[in-house]
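step=predict obj=Triosephosphate isomerase n=247
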Amino acid sequence: MGRKFCVGGNWKMNGSKASITDLCKVLTAGPLDPNVEIVVGCPAVYISFARSLLPESIRVAGQNAYKAKSGAFTGEMAPSMLLDVGADWVIIGHSERRQIFGESDELIAEKVAFALAEGMKVIACIGETLQEREAGQTEAVCFRQTKAIAATVKDWTNVVIAYEPVWAIGTGKTATPAQAQEVHAALRKWFTENVSPEVSDAIRIQYGGSVTAANCRELGSQPDIDGFLVGGASLKPEFVQIVNAKQ
Ligand SMILES: O=C(CO)COP(=O)(O)O
């Protein structure tokens, strides 16, 4: 199939110059599987600092970007600004942005399209809450979120989808490999039917939610899991083992 495994770290609102220095030393020492694309989502204020400490092979992502080039949007940042300070990726639509900051499917879709148009690569996040899963709405929710993004995206080359069930984020409750694979396969089928077989075959779908060194191998061996988006464990040396899950 030839989809390059892609592992993202999402540092969220964590870190300081001191801790980022330590983490970048660990990542630089690796060793990291050269066949894996690696991206770390860094708090915006530390992007240039992290970029200066990491090898070129590890890419840096912002964790949010607005849908305008510049202007009166206090507290926001433009994709061009992230690019300017060394991030060529951006994470958009994380469940924390959706839930805590009230971002809608439509806003997220607009942000994804804008960041792509500005030349960034995007990790677009989707996923159901526990309540939605228990109500049997997992696929409906994931398809609705993906459909909104598909309404604005024409070229999927620079898009990675991160399937992150909200109930698995930061809870230590990982989706089982079978549960994750089931949703990933359903998403891939959705792409075949609603976008194209070519995009469906090529698009990387990451799993996120309590990924650790202990569970990454089994998750990563599922046919439709093409990488991970890692929160808590991306702040620890164990991230190296997660990057190397396929070795
Ligand atoms: O939200 C996540 C990555 O974006 C997952 O977080 P945890 O790995 O801490 O569960």
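step=describe
The first helix runs from residue 17 to 29.
step=end
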